[in-house]
Write a structure and sequence with these properties.
Chain lengths: 110, 109
């Protein structure tokens, strides 16, 4: 069964560093999403992406964040100058009316 | 105001018990997901439904669109069912998913 994959599974970084989280969507999916879950809190929407551009973003998704699909397969979330409060699980999802979630990347900012 | 609420927040059950988790939402939706999240953190989609009832193994999900309410039932619960169960929905097709707060289930042998 096709699945969404994410790398790395766990990323530890120093505050102020840049990180790139990667997602490989299911091959025929055209809609892509990033969500995050801070420990102990509910999952929250960051951004949706379709046709090589952002279709919607939340208040959380400020200039520190960017997304792209650089090679037609990977879908990436870049966080510039990470902050302590960026520590969370980041989930990629693809699909449309039914979304398929990746296993998540646990980001720890020290 | 939260657009989606779940009850109970926490639930402890004895192995073999029948379990019900409820979800209420306040807006029109396109589809509703029931998701499972284990302590490791990954999210697994259990059901997507827009009307009626679906069954998969020991899991049953129902939705009442008019009452804006959905339930997840687990029959013959087992310790491996211990997880957080999340109700989530889309307002329209291809929209972002809005997540509920989750119900933490612990099934004791």
């Amino acid at each position: 069964e096709p699945e969404v994959t994410q790398t790395p599974s766990h990323q530890v970084t120093q505050m102020g560093q840049e990180v790139i989280l990667r997602c490989v969507p299911i091959s025929n999916h055209l809609y892509f999403y990033w969500y995050r879950q801070i420990l102990g809190q509910k999952v929250e929407f960051l951004v949706s992406f379709y046709n090589n551009e952002i279709s919607e973003k939340s208040e959380i998704f400020d200039d520190q964040f960017s997304v792209e699909r650089p090679d037609g397969s990977n879908f990436t979330l870049k966080i510039r100058s990470t902050k302590l409060e960026d520590s969370a699980m980041y989930f990629c999802a693809t699909g449309g009316n039914e979304q398929f979630f990746g296993p998540g990347t646990r980001l720890t900012v020290l | 105001k939260n657009e989606v609420e779940q009850s109970p927040q926490n639930l402890t059950a004895q192995e073999g018990e029948f379990i019900t988790i409820n979800c209420s939402y306040s807006v029109g939706i396109s589809a509703l997901h029931w998701l499972q999240q284990h302590p490791g953190g990954g999210i697994v989609s259990l059901f997507m439904l827009s009307s009626g009832k679906k069954k998969h193994g020991r899991l049953i999900a129902t939705i009442n669109i008019q009452e804006k309410h959905s339930s997840l039932h687990i029959t013959a619960s087992h310790p491996r069912d211990s997880a957080v169960y999340i109700c989530a929905f889309l307002k329209t097709s291809y929209d972002k998913v809005i997540f509920g707060p989750g119900t933490s289930l612990s099934v004791i042998p």
